[in-house]
Amino acid sequence: MSEPAEPDFLQQPVTALRGVGDAVAEKLVRLGILRVADLLFHLPLRYQDRTRIYPIASLKVGQEVLVEGEIESTEVVQRGRTMLLCYLNDGSGTLILRFFHFTSAQKYSLRKGVLLRCFGEVRQSGMKLEMAHPECHYLKADDPEPIANTLTPTYPTTEGLQQRSLRRLIDLALEHVEELPDLLPESVVRQHHFPPLANELRKLHTPPSGSTVEGMRPYRLIFEELLAHQLGVQQARHELKQVQAHTMPETNHYWRQLLRALPFAPTGAQDRVIAEITTDLQQTVPMNRLVQGDVGSGKTLVAVAAALHAIANGFQVAMMAPTELLAEQHYQNLVRWLEPLGIETVYISGNQTPRQRRRKVENLLLGIGHIAVGTHALFQRTVEFLQLGLIIIDEQHRFGVHQRMALREKGKQGEHYPHQLVMTATPIPRTLAMTAYGDLDYSVIDELPPGRTPITTVALNNERRDEVIERISAACREGRQVYWVCTLIEESEALQCEAAEVTAAMLHERLPHVAVGLVHGRLHGSEKENIMRQFKLGEIQLLVATTVIEVGVDVPNASLMVIENAERMGLSQLHQLRGRVGRGSVASSCVLLYQHPLGKTARKRLDAMRTTTDGFMIADIDLELRGPGEVLGTRQTGDVRLRIASLLRDQHLLPAVQMAAREVVAHYPERVEALTQRWLQQPDGETATQFFQS
Ligand code: ADP
Ligand code: MG
């Protein structure tokens, strides 16, 4: 055990840990980890089994395994770009190790005769098997290296913070796990036969080798998280009823003017939702409404109707998108639609220099700008409004209940809070929506605009890539545009981007007459926008992208979508991606490329994609396929920011959770804050940094 614990060591900032300085602390903040205790609740996404060494002859495609052997030979080859190939032999067979970039020192250290232990994913490479960029460990001939005896967790991480460092810090925090206060009421623990909190956390962070997914399911933590969520939602709803908003009488001259100029009429569903919003805006308490509408259902127009209502009443509007790409796209739409009405749209970007931004910020403060569009940059201290009346959050899945509250606070002016409209594409059954977003009212746009041609979806074995490339060539000849999405699910963004680069280079070589563009998460905002703009203008015909294009991008002329490694993606994510095509009047198609052989669930997922394009149906099948077998990783469920619980999968717990929530409020009111702090105040990535800094 470690040094004697100070009281409340777990509540200390992470810098209290050995070896954590400001630089590391800053990275941890990006993961929502501020205090030592937060490390304990930073839970693995999945596990790697490094507890045994596999004979090369026994390897199967898709396995993530440890192998050991001697390098037989090494060569440098040229396949569009320079690569290093090492042939690793363990007596049973040979495995290729492929490196896309390498220094001459690395090349030397990977020479013939060197003994290596490698960990990586097995892939097909022609007739042979390979690992790309495995983790390598050099071995000495007569000095056997010990092997792990617990499964190795893989954590959500951030640029510049290695899994190994995270694991080390979490191990340090685990030495204090017994000191965690128990926040569940006694009676709940007894009734559900929950194990002690410390045991469950230890098991998740260091599962013994041979652990099964079923055996590891952390029921107690799932319950706690749902409870915290429930308490947060109740609190938010309660607080909101106590505050005031400006009432905005119905004034629709701008809206009527816009309708006259639009080439289409709103759908019945859009009209209905707009009417619901119009009613909300006339109340004296803030609107707090969630609008759910499948991809392409026309949520932007609904948002614009709400904005025009507020602007016609003399108020300003802030519209927030999750990425620069989407913010830029909204900006362009708004300018196109609203400029003729004399309405001034202001674009606030995280990439603008203070000088570029100053003028825009001034306009907002003076009330010259009517509507501001941007990412969370919109809510930095420097951006102030003269009279903010409405906040619109598009594609809300990255914002939890606490972020919604924080935003509202920022928009507060005097005694008045702004109205808030949240838009999401994730279909979620109504009853669940009540729990998930208990603090919000709920509307659905359940109709797509007319004139869409259905999307045909096919699933193709990766080996038929050539046919796909042929199809792309044909589509481009006909003046159509194509997406190619690289969806390697790697822990590191760097590897993802690299894979996209390789694919783009390959397609460029194979399709010399096609203008190929590449967009991924590591490009700067302005570079990304530039490429997207070129794609929208048709200057780029084939866009190779990582999943950055998942939400919201709208290019009606794009009618072919190719998704690589589709077998590894969740259904809802596949559905979102596919929603990028089928937006114009040409028949669209979606090609799901998969790696043979397909697992049972993967096959069902691809089948579902082939047979339906209905978001609600997809959500149902998704739930069924996830089933109760899944332990962790609810990230793909989308909207609600839960870490281990899943509202869909764990819905049978909800009645008990609601009862527990009542008990905590009645008998342990002081635990409400501790629970919500433990589970809810951990926004991710950029958002976290921004929120903590501003
Ligand atoms: P999403 O709900 O996915 O955000 P968008 O708002 O981006 O969808 O709309 C998708 C496309 O449909 C846009 O090109 C938009 O201009 C168009 N659109 C929206 N409403 C209608 C309508 N009522 N009739 C025809 N096209 C519409
Ligand atoms: Mg949208």
What's the short version?
The chain has 694 residues and is an alpha/beta fold.
Characterise this structure.
This protein is an alpha/beta fold and 694 residues long. Among the domains are: 64-147, Beta Barrel (OB fold (Dihydrolipoamide Acetyltransferase, E2P)); 253-445, Rossmann fold; 455-612, 3-Layer(aba) Sandwich (Rossmann fold), CATH 3.40.50. Helix content is 38%, strand content 18%. The protein is built from 24 helices and 22 strands. The strands form four sheets. The protein has a seven-stranded mixed beta sheet with strand order 6-7-4-3-2-5-8, with no helix packed on it. α10 (268-281) runs parallel beside α11 and α20 runs antiparallel to α21 (615-626). The longest helix is centred in the N-terminal third of the chain and has 23 residues, at 219-241. The protein is globular. The relative contact order is 0.11. Bound molecules: adenosine-5'-diphosphate and magnesium ion. Magnesium ion is lined by residues 299-300, 394, 552.
Distance between the termini: 39 Å
Oligomer: single chain
Largest sheet: 7 strands, mixed
- The CATH topology of the domain at 253-445: Rossmann fold
* CATH superfamily heading of the domain at 253-445: P-loop containing nucleotide triphosphate hydrolases
Q: Give the averaged pLDDT, no decimals.
A: 85
Number of helices: 24
Catalogue the unreliable spans: 627-639, 683-694
Task: Specify Rg, calculated over alpha carbons.
Answer: 26 Å
In the CATH classification, which architecture of the domain at 253-445 applies?
A: 3-Layer(aba) Sandwich
Major β-sheet strand ordering: 6-7-4-3-2-5-8
Enzyme class: isomerase
Organism: Thiothrix caldifontis
Pfam families: DEAD, Helicase_C, RecG_dom3_C, RecG_wedge
InterPro entries: ATP-dep_DNA_helicase_RecG (IPR004609), DEAD/DEAH_box_helicase_dom (IPR011545), Helicase_ATP-bd (IPR014001), Helicase_C-like (IPR001650), NA-bd_OB-fold (IPR012340), P-loop_NTPase (IPR027417), RecG/Mfd (IPR047112), RecG_dom3_C (IPR045562)
